[in-house]
Amino acid sequence: MKIGFIGAGHMAQAIMIGLCKQKYVATADILVHSAHETSYQPFAAEHGLTAATSNAEIVKQADIVILAVPAAQTLDIVASLQDELASHEPILVSVAGGISLAQLQENSDSTGLSIVRAMPNVNVAIGQGMTALVTSPITPAADFAQVEQLFQALGDTTPLAEKDFATFSALAGSAPAYAYLFIDSLARAGVKYGLDKEIATKIAAQTVLGSAANVAESSTNPWGLIDQVSSPGGTTVAGLLAMEEAGLMTAVVKGIDATIAKENAE
Ligand SMILES: NC(=O)C1=CN([C@@H]2O[C@H](COP(=O)(O)OP(=O)(O)OC[C@H]3O[C@@H](n4cnc5c(N)ncnc54)[C@H](O)[C@@H]3O)[C@@H](O)[C@H]2O)C=CC1
Ligand SMILES: O=C(O)[C@@H]1CCC=N1
Q1: How far apart are CA 7 and CA 96, in angstroms?
Q2: pLDDT (tens digit, 9 = 90+) per residue, 138-175?
Q3: CATH 3.40.50.720 occupies which residues in the chain?
Q4: Residues 64 and 147 sit within 8 Å (Cβ to Cβ)
Q5: Does the beta carbon of 170 sit less than 6 angstroms from any atom of ligand 1?
Q6: CATH 3.40.50.300, applies to 3-160
Q7: Where are the domain boundaries for CATH 1.10.3730.10 in the chain?
Q8: pLDDT tens digits, residue range 7-49?
Q9: Ligand 2 pocket: which residues have CB below 6 Å?
Q10: Has 127 been labeled as part of a binding site?
């Protein structure tokens, strides 16, 4: 099976690195092309991938085509590939935020094309991704299963109604950035009290990693886990109350509101 990438930016590279690490296919069976030679050719050479000469070559050669270009350009690129899509009929996977299955279908102008919308996050690079998937009604179950299997190799997946994609994109697509901000804020506080930044970052990252694993494994919800850490009259409850006074929960929800509003505006 050949997996082709149109676009070689942050998201595409994270998926390609994840596929290489998982040895999902032979590296030469990962094909890549993007608008900027300087971004895809050295990357392809470094990882033993096949650099294709055009977007059309990707469509002609790949069984699954992953479109990972800026959302604003996605539909024009699909429209420019109508002939190749119609004659080669790969499974088309778009990771573009805010671009619907109906728009993809309309611009591909190929009524029988299998189309899947995926919203991964950058953690697919280390096999810890969280990806939502939704398929067009005419996509055969076997084609959807191929795409699902690919993303399952790179972490967890969930089928999701298309109407919820903007919310998912905020909570999983963008939220790695928000989690990094939280980790960096913890580390910076450590620096304030004299810790070396590198050591403080390691401490903060491992603490967040362990806490996330605890939430995932525990049958108790996060509030119950917060209570377990908060000793009566202790330090944690003092910290929690100060964070809430500064509006941590409101700040997070407002951040998600803004993320969703931006996606819906595109
Ligand atoms: N960065 C992330 O964490 C996530 C990004 N996405 C989606 O992935 C898509 C790409 O985002 P990033 O990788 O962050 O952007 P990026 O700016 O890092 O990469 C965009 C890539 O598209 C290529 N490109 C632009 N025009 C092209 C054309 N006409 N033909 C071929 N390639 C072209 C560029 O050369 C570049 O390699 C967006 O639609 C975004 O919504 C989805 C989930 C998470
Ligand atoms: O920032 C963005 O627009 C993309 C979508 C989800 C994560 N990154």
Answers
A1: 11
A2: 999 999 999 999 999 999 999 999 999 999 999 999 99
A3: 3-160
A4: yes
A5: no
A6: no
A7: 168-265
A8: 999 999 999 999 999 999 999 999 999 998 888 999 999 999 9
A9: 97, 169, 173-174
A10: no
